[in-house]
Every structure is written in C-alpha cells, then in structure tokens.
Amino acid sequence: MKKLTVLFIAVLFASAAFSQGRFRLQAGPVLDYLRSEGNGYSFPNLELGYTFGAAYEMVTSNHFSIQPELNYSVLNTVETVNSSKIKLQYVQIPVLLKFVNDHRTFSFYLGPQLGLLANANSRTSGKNTDIKDQLTQNDFSGMAGMEFAFTHNILLNVRYTQGFSNVIKVEFDSPSKTRMEAFGLVLTYAFDRKKK
Given phi > 0 = left and psi -120 to 50 = alpha, else beta, which region is 29? Predict the structure, then answer.
C-alpha cells in the first residue's frame, strides 16, 4: 500500500513538472481532536500540533486548479481516563480540487487525504510506550478549506480535516469508533514558475 502511495504521489509531482503551476512550501499550527464513541476512551480537548510540507498547484483553467500535497504532521492528544499524552506522526497526502476567483486572491478547496502513520507514542506517569502497532496504519480523511493571498507569493490557508478511518485498530470490527478531526492554519510561500 505504501509503495503504491509513493508511486501515486510521484506521478502527480512528475506531471506537475510539465504543467502550468507553482511549487509551494507550507507550515503551520494544527488543533486536533480525537472524537471517540462507544468505548472507554476519552479525548475531550483540542490539542496543539503542527504540520509542514510541500505542494504543487496545477492550474487547469482561470477558476480551477488541482493541488497534490506531501505533508508531515505531528498531532497531540490526551487520553484522560489514564492521563496518557499521545503523540501521532503522519505523512499525509491530500489531493485538493481548488475553485479560484478572478484575481486568484481567494480560493475554496476540498479533496481526499491519505495519512500514513509514521510513529505513535504514549506517555503515562513518565513512561513512554510505542503504540504504533495498536493503531491503524493508513488513515483516510477528507479536507476542506479556504486560501487567502496576501501577496502574489504569500498565502494563508484555513483548513479542516475529518477522518473517516478508525484510529484505533481493534475498533475496525466493532461499533465503537475513534476518528481524528483537525483544524489547521497554514502559511504558504509560492514560487513563481520560471519562463523559458
């Protein structure tokens, strides 16, 4: 699955090299929340994490773009029943469809996202435990957001991510579920494509 994902994103970025568009670097804070239902876990609070990565906006028309991204996100949460601090690290690959205004100063976007779990640790009473094997390795989610251009090169994204996969592995065959939600504020620098 991971090999297919890497191949998929490589094809997207390779096609970007031959399209009209702009390469982008981006980073910012993320407020994440695990919504748990039908189980004994409790994650009641929004917690602060962060994300950084790269993207390529492929302009297909005056009002429409396709933007694949490759991001690394560190998400934190606290499980209050056992007072455990949990850190989740994902490689995330969204593919966004963007609807852009006439002057390209504002856009609305949405699209699917695949998250690959890179690392997961739980800290309880000062003891760190690797919990990656207890969690779902591939997280499928949807993303929607808005982008504002302060200048031609500096942009701000406000984005929301809703997880569709159960974060905890044992919940796949049970009615209980724990799914990730995240709110991000991402600052982007877009590089102009050099004209030949």
Answer: beta
- Give the torsion sign (CA, 15, 21, 23, 25): negative
pLDDT digits (tens, 9 = 90+) for 84-126: 888 999 999 999 999 999 888 999 999 999 999 999 998 888 8
**Residue boundaries of the structural domains of the chain:** 2-191
Q: What is the DSSP string of 42-54?
A: ---S-EEEEEEEE
Q: Tell me how far apart the alpha carbons of residues 3 and 5 are, in angstroms, rounded to a whole number.
A: 5
Domain 2-191, CATH: 2.40.160.20
Which residues, at least 6 apart from 182, have a Cβ–Cβ distance to it below 8 Å?
30, 31, 32, 33, 49, 73, 75, 160, 161
Number of H helices, E strands in the chain: 1, 9
